């Protein structure tokens, strides 16, 4: 699984406070910890008010890239903000994100066409909101992929996020999500399918338990990228264990190595 | 999932020591703890030398049934021992087990025919050893089910255990096991499919991590009975989380109740 570290995001209260206080040490620690835990990309999202976003985003990118050479997943609800701050990214990267909403595709797809070093996150949501059933998710993905293909952008530069809905609100959320993974891989064999895993557990107790078992099920259905907290042992444990169980880790070598490095398994008391 | 509590088994060193020392308090504690954690059956296996087995088994049954009214999964490698000790069981129960090995079927199937209150565990192993591929497992199951059906024993009295092999020895153990679950349910819709889950992790570190994610995958493929340690929070957490994720727990009520009862989720430090 491709791990996109989710922790440098102003939507997380502690990170928001650090951004507000311009707490460099805290942000640096998040970047280093996620890289050490095995992140492949670092998501960077300021999550501040629009008039303060560019300054906050540039500040974050400066600090993160000072301590990590991981490619950046450049994350903003405003596609213009993404375009405006791309110059501050040393190692592209995933533009996060397009969807069928507003002008996102019109703004970002031409940029992707010109910059083959960038990939893109494509969310299965439109102006009418998020899609619930696998069929609705695929319909949105189809519209996005038609535009992607029309511009000659290769499938393997696209991460489709079918959108994980809270199980507490939508009882068949996991079932529909997993059906969507399989349908997406069937329709576009080259694309990655990504999930913001922890969304499954909004409003449910023991969130890490539910998140980690959802990750196992989603991986089994073909998920190959996760926007997750790689420092969460339940999550990263699910990843290594599931890969080993699914025959994707010969002789469980990666699992055993992760255990020896102290990344998975029970914590000594 | 039907939970068969595995802890009262002389194959477990601490339980063996308690049996040897006739430590009533220890055995009582195992029975009560497993029932409180949600066990549906208690497996009872003496695991001692043949000449001491009957006495040990009767001693165990006496203590266990003194504190618990759960039905007993009467477990011995010797089918005659099972027949000889059935009279000591107040609440049948599963005879554990038949297989294609030796005289097990010849001894136990007539007993099952006469005693409709008992169910039976049927292992996918024969004189040639355990079966590795799903096709081998099904071939053994077919032979057993032919005999079961010939005696008019109903499918829902049979728990087929396709046999979980250690992932450290057989790299596709989980994949073949899960294929077997689906094939068994396809062939005999009324039977239960059971797994001794922790066998997956022999020789692998962080066993509880691997066991619990294996349980999630197996449940998703249709496993409906587990010979497990119900006091293990990783295992029981997987059961509740997976049921909720698979839409088998409306409004996550059982999951939420298990959390409130303190059965799942992080332990307060």
Low-confidence stretches of chain A: none
How large a portion of the residues of chain A is in β-strands, by DSSP E?
15-25%
| Total count of helical runs of at least 4 residues of chain A | 10
Say how many strands of chain A there are.
9
String of helices and strands of chain A: EHHEHEHEHEEHEHEHEHH
List the quaternary state of the chains: homodimer
Name the CATH superfamily classification of the largest domain in chain A: Dihydropteroate synthase-like
Q: How would a textbook summarize the main sheet of chain A?
A: 8 strands, parallel, barrel
Produce a short descriptive summary.
Two copies of one chain form a homodimer. Chain A contains ten helices and nine strands.
